[in-house]
């Protein structure tokens, strides 16, 4: 893996985020890696709290997160917010720029953030010239859809204690898949208010629920760091099923279709 310590406000970074992300679903050849490295190497850095995307604003770029955390959210007309996703290194933010000229969400930096900037035309050309890499990009967006469905199930059916347990396990496994987990100590730069907006709870309820988890000896929070003390117990509490998050290989039937398209 190409993960390294440092950057992102004390968190972790990926030197080649798109390669790492797509490498979870298929074995990349030297040619594949060269194609990905030929994409734009333009980087942008955002300070904590800065907006990467604004709902309804013009959008002409896709961001691949290299370091730090980003929160994606929708707002109601009265200002209430629902955080729909925590984007981590390797994640793609603003993928809908391929089909939308304005952003459908807000995206803000939860820590200091570094992103690689890609233009929609670059990704379309990549998919046309290397269909198997285009399929891998589709896989990444499909995984995001699965995660969104799981988050909806949590907010709709899990109790508060279960929701937080589930989120902590999910975060641990996502970072682990990218080679970015430091044993059971994770960079977790999320405020209690942001956590409440992601879990569909009040901030007071978040404080109470976190206290129950810490007093039970399952987790420990130390500033922007989360230590998971009993992963298996946390999985049981959160009724965690990793089917939606475990990286899966592209089905052979789909691979054959891509090979036929290339021929």
Overview of this protein structure:
The chain has nine helices and 13 strands. The strands form four sheets. Strands 3-10-5-8 form a four-stranded antiparallel β-sheet. A four-stranded antiparallel β-sheet has the order 4-9-6-7. It has 263 residues and is an alpha+beta fold. Helix 3 packs across helix 4 (131-157), helix 5 packs across helix 8 and helix 6 crosses helix 7 (203-215). 41% of the residues lie in helices and 21% in strands. The protein has helices at residues 17-22, 30-37, 120-129, 131-157, 160-177, 192-199, 203-215, 231-237, 252-262, and strands at 3-5, 12-14, 43-46, 51-53, 62-67, 70-75, 81-87, 92-93, 106-109, 113-118, 185-187, 219-222, 225-228. It has one domain (3-262): Jelly Rolls (Sandwich), CATH 2.60.120.10. The protein is globular, with a radius of gyration of 18 Å. The two termini are 32 Å apart.
Give the C-level CATH assignment.
Answer: Mainly Beta
For the biggest β-sheet, the strand order reads: 3-10-5-8
CATH superfamily (homologous) name: Jelly Rolls
Using the 3D structure, state the CATH architecture.
Answer: Sandwich
Number of alpha- plus pi-helical segments: 9
Number of strands: 13
SS class: alpha+beta
Cα-atom Rg, whole angstroms? 18 Å
The name CATH uses for the topology is Jelly Rolls
Question: In terms of topology, how is this protein built?
Answer:
Blueprint: E1 3-5, E2 12-14, H1 17-22, H2 30-37, E3 43-46, E4 51-53, E5 62-67, E6 70-75, E7 81-87, E8 92-93, E9 106-109, E10 113-118, H3 120-129, H4 131-157, H5 160-177, E11 185-187, H6 192-199, H7 203-215, E12 219-222, E13 225-228, H8 231-237, H9 252-262
Antiparallel strand pairs: 1-2, 3-10, 4-9, 5-8, 5-10, 6-7, 6-9, 11-13, 12-13
